[in-house]
Amino acid sequence: LNYLKRNIYKALPSSRLETKTDSLAYNRVSVHLVAFKKSVCEGMKTMLESQQWLSAIDYTVMAWGYVKATPVWANPPHNNVRKTCFKTLATGCMRALKEGNFKIDQRLNIKGKLEKLKSENDEILVCVKYIDFIMNNGNNNF
Question: N or C: at which end does the chain have fewer Cβ atoms within 10 angstroms?
């Protein structure tokens, strides 16, 4: 993911006179953004298909920072790749929370990790509320 993120920034215009968040810059970077999105989605899919629930949550936390580091574009529709990545990670995390049978100490650890992501994007809020719900009700399986 770091390699793909670097490719995004390498493709951005390097001139001081050009803006780095306009449509022209997006057109130069769009191929790299699609490759980045594909990698994020496939990584999460692999974790979920192999039923590695704790690893899926760790992947969410790790990849979240890389997605957050991608450029925010001036034209809102250009941010769809970024939004899709956040949504994919949050959805995968939610599935891992629902299907993983985590112990209490693991739940506390997961909650701490997800709390840190909460301020960066609203997509993860559902996961944080769900882990709170599990912890407050004391149920192991849902």
Answer: C
Q: Is the pLDDT of residue 99 over 50?
A: yes
- Alpha-carbon distance 29 to 16, whole Å? 17
Burial of 54 (0-12, 13-18, 19+ CB in 10 A): middle
* Helix axis angle, 53-68 to 104-117, nearest 10°: 10
Q: What is the pTM of this model?
A: 0.88
Cα 134 from Cα 139, distance rounded (Å): 6
**Digit-coded pLDDT (tens) for 46-61:** 999 999 999 999 999 9
Measured between its terminal Cα atoms, the distance across the chain in Å is 32
Identify the CA nearest to 55 among candidates 46, 65, 64. 46
pLDDT, tens digit, 9 for 90 and up, residues 24-46: 888 889 999 999 999 999 999 99
